Amino acid sequence: MDSFQFKRAPAVPRKISDIAPDKDIRVRLLGRVIDKGEGSVVIDDGSAKAEIITEQPAELGDVVRIIARVLPLETGYDLRAEVTQDMSTLDMELYKKAAGNA
Predict the structure, then answer these.
(1) Residue 17, SS3?
(2) For 70-100, how does the pLDDT look when each residue is reduced to its tens digit (9 = 90+)?
(3) Cβ distance 79 to 24 under 8 Å?
(4) What is the second-level CATH architecture of the domain 12-88?
(5) How far, in Å, CA of 47 to CA of 83, rounded?
(6) Domain boundaries, given as residue ranges, for the chain
(7) Does the structure show a pLDDT above 90 at 102?
(8) Whole-model pTM?
């Protein structure tokens, strides 16, 4: 008997400006928290800004990596965080160099 195993879609690294709600299911974003509200944060990754619905705390100015679900809407999309990681100790220059964005 074959056993069914649920497989989660991979979180693809994306810039906010490159998110395609018709193709992307889960994305991995890296950016700085520039605003926060009740149940959401706004991050800026240098290409664009995005509001992400989250229950996980983040402070203004923190550098975070967020794994989020992309929920397509009639006009645009919503992002719902699954995981938020504090990346404040990340050496951004070294990261950009390693990622080929230097």
Answers:
(1) helix
(2) 999 998 999 999 999 999 898 888 887 887 7
(3) no
(4) Beta Barrel (2.40)
(5) 21
(6) 12-88
(7) no
(8) 0.84
What pLDDT, in 10s, does the model give residues 8-35?
A: 889 999 999 999 999 999 999 999 999 9
User: Which parts of the chain fold into alpha helices (H)?
Assistant: 92-99
Q: Residues in the chain, how many?
A: 102
Reduced to 3 states (helix: H, G, I; strand: E, B; else coil), residue 55 is: coil
Q: What is the pLDDT of residues 29-76, one digit of tens each?
A: 999 999 999 999 999 998 999 999 999 888 999 999 999 999 999 989
d(CA 28, CA 20): 13
**Closest of 34, 6, 16, 7 to residue 70, by C-alpha:** 16
Contacts of 99 by beta carbon, 8 Å cutoff, 6+ apart: none
Amino acid at the residue 64: V
